[in-house]
Amino acid sequence: MTRQYTKNENPLKAIRKKTSLFFTTMNLDQLPKIKTVRWIFGDQLNARHSWYTEKCEETLYVIGELPQEIKYVRHHVQKVCAFFLAMEAFSISLQSHGHKVLHLTLDDSIKYGSLQQLIKVIITRTSCSSFEYQRPDEYRLLNQLRELTSQVSITMKEVDSEHFLVPFEELPSYFKPSISVRMENFYRKMRKRFNILMTNDGPLGERWNFDTENRKSFSKSSLSEIPPPLVFKNDARLAIARLEKHGIKTIGKSDNNLLWPINKTQSLQLLEYFCEFGLSRFGLYQDAMTGNSEYQWSLYHSRLSFSLNTKMLHPMHVIQTAIQSFENSNGVISLAQVEGFIRQILGWREYVRGMYWSNMPSYSAANSLDANRPLPGWFWSGNTKMNCVKKSIQQTMTYSYAHHIQRLMVTGNFSLLAGLAPDEVDEWYLGVYVDAIEWVELPNTRGMALFADGGLIASKPYAASGNYINKMSDYCKGCAYKVKERITEDACPFNALYWHFIDRNKSRFSGNPRMAFPYSRWSKYSSQDQANIIAKGEKLLTNLESL
Fold first, then answer.
1. What is the pLDDT of residue 255?
2. Cis peptide before 32 (omega within 30 of 0)
3. DSSP strands (E only) in 218-322
């Protein structure tokens, strides 16, 4: 059975009841005259922000469910509910600490088509003289707020979100527009800067990176050792009812109990659970996939990305907690495991944020491989005969989650090989995953998975045939296609698509040293074999919907 946290199955219910004894609910029609309005987005749930160190009767905090944010792409229902419940919990927490808060639900905000329109109404009704906001992490939202500055007569003030390890104003010292920056080099700078896993002589263990030791797949015996995931039972009925009431179209599956953490307390519990049950084998199996475990969707992954990306958890706290668990484990947690985990946060997470801001807005239109095929319909249902893709998509629709190798080397790899349009792939990734916010989704999808940025992030395209998936998973054993075949009717589509990708992009990649091996191997095929494989690939590309 999936492990569930049951000490407080519905924290919002208890908090709502307690809070209502002391605070009067505000709405847009009954706003008080106020000096300062401070805006909070749904991914700015940082309770330790300096904003909250002092209470002021002349300051009103506003947090709201925004129609524009749930309509600009179609989102997974669990993603929307997770944000809605986390925002409500944060609002109640602020009120309980003595702050004035306006929490807007869809019932309040649905008639306001844009963020700017809603803010103007609030400014007018409060007669405030100052409007403050934490700098959004999405270019789109930052642009909207900065445009608003010229449209209102009051003072507009932008402050930092106080979340990331590298201050926003320092990003240009690490990242330059249209210049490739390798994550490993950046990661080493971060290790030195913050003294993480370092000694006086250099990196702990005399190595910066233990990635080569973290590529193990599951054996039959190791499948039974996978720990059950910690999930929560947060009552999502009111949030779901609001979505249905206002006709908001979502994707994916949901019941009334949301499994994702919605406040800092639950987020800390998930962190503690990961360090106790997942960290000791996280690195070892971080690239592994399986379809033969009850816990195949969670494995040894922390699933902390939603808590981090909404700022309920601070990255340095997560890093230090993992290090403390490593140091106190008496060798149960090895250096390779903790280093692999920290690299994702101290390295990759900070890195993609820097690459995003240094290259926007042009990055969102990058399409260096001229990919233009539409997304097959089964991306939304999982109704495909390719077992690896089917499992990954069905898991995504069930949990609003897939781990990084499923995203990169299954759905991402297929999208790359098939030449799917980056705009459509971006929209899918941004909508289906609970942790997807553009600053982190866009570099991972358009850069890492699709190579659409021309190599700013990845030094080579992450293209792979069925052999990689067979090596890192047991998906192929239950597949209708044969992973060892290339051109037969039931051959694994990844194989011919891989070589078709290699051949059609030879002018781009044949000179890349990291692509020397596949091009050398391709050259050894006879001209007839090459022609047969290319023909098979063409047939697959014209019939993507039927795969």
1. 85
2. no
3. 234-235, 257-258
